[in-house]
Here is the input.
Amino acid sequence: MASTYDLVLTGGTVVNHDGVGQHDIGVRGGRIVAIGAIGAGQAAETIDAKGLHILPGVIDSQVHFREPGLEHKEDLESGSRGAVMGGVTCVFEMPNTKPLTTSAETLADKVERATHRMFCDFAFYVGGTRENVDDIPQLERLPGSAGIKVFMGSSTGNLLVEDDPSLDRIIAKLSRRAAFHAEDEMRLNARKGERIPGDPSSHYVWRDEEAALLATTRLVGLAEKYGRRVHVLHISTAAEMAFLADHKDWASVEVTPHHLTLVAPDCYERLGTYAQMNPPVRDARHRDAIWAALANGVVDVLGSDHAPHTREEKDHPYPDSHSGMTGVQTLVPIMLDHVNAGRLSLQRFVDLTSHGPQRLFNMRGKGRIAVGYDADFTVVDLKRSETIDNAWIESRAGWTPYHGTRVTGWPIGTIVRGHRVMWDGELTRPAVGEAARFL
Ligand code: DOR
Here is the structure.
């Protein structure tokens, strides 16, 4: 007799819109078809999830996977291996590759490279530029597009729209929510003298709170002018959080695990240039303000901003060292450790990594454990303690700023549309990644 389900997860504690409770989950054709008590023997495959928590698949809405053109740092396959080893089921990837993702052709090329080669599902941001502004309405809506991303301050690569008239033209064209790296390029240029050669702790002196606030204020002003929705990436300052709390009509807010976890000056003393990131990790006043905004709901999503660079690139003396650190694989364990330490609830974590991206970006079929949705699950053991190690990191970069960090809470399984792609540290092939769909 044919099985009723392709897969049943039994006995796990499910965290979803309904709260936290023990339910079995039945999956057929890659979708959730039943939640409740499901008898034994009805499934082709059964996963015993007793003692484990089943979360909606974690969506990391900011990663840099470097393909095409920068594959010595990462590629779509290695980056997605890191994602699923860390419990992440879907990523939104950034356009600062070589060539830049700024056209229908470069987007289609990424989608083709990624399909069934990436281990998780994916969407790709398209860089907004002065040159492609007239194409934005079309670029936002292409298959596999996560929408438009704009760098207002320069970081890795040369995607940059620093001036208000150009930003104005881009924002006027938007219909989907678009994502912004908000640091004021003019202020960054004027303050380059603040960088002390050989001293990465001068990075956050150079790229200061005012540079971030200026850009965020300019951005939200334009969003308000046109009634557009903007997603302000990796917010790193107390001042921006205070401002954004008053502008939630237009602006959604992302924070990163590293801005919540690392703190200056300690991180620069311990990690040197390996803590160098844009926008920078700052002092405890800012970290505490980010936690407060996470607690009071101003923060909408968590993104890792996984930005791998090789050791050789990180080992150049500051300021020639590259900005960025790996993060997609450590997002879940680092944040579950914060859950265990009582800094956020498990439900808030799910709100930030599943419901949040679904809500902001109008994702179809993802972000919830509900009948009819994709069978994407992040299965975690909240009690398991592990020490994060460079050797565990799948990224081509081969390092993590959390090397040697003991955490409690660990991803045990990653299930993508009913496929068990990772279980207890073992990867299952072939890769099943497909483009996420949006309304
Ligand atoms: O530190 C960073 N590195 N910040 C960014 O915004 C870009 C990223 C990268 O691509 O390396």
Summary: The chain has two domains: 5-54+373-425, 57-361. The longest strand covers residues 5-16. The pocket of DOR is lined by residues 64, 96, 155-156, 181, 277-278, 307, 323-324 (CB under 6 Å). Residues 3 and 42 are 5 Å apart (CA to CA).
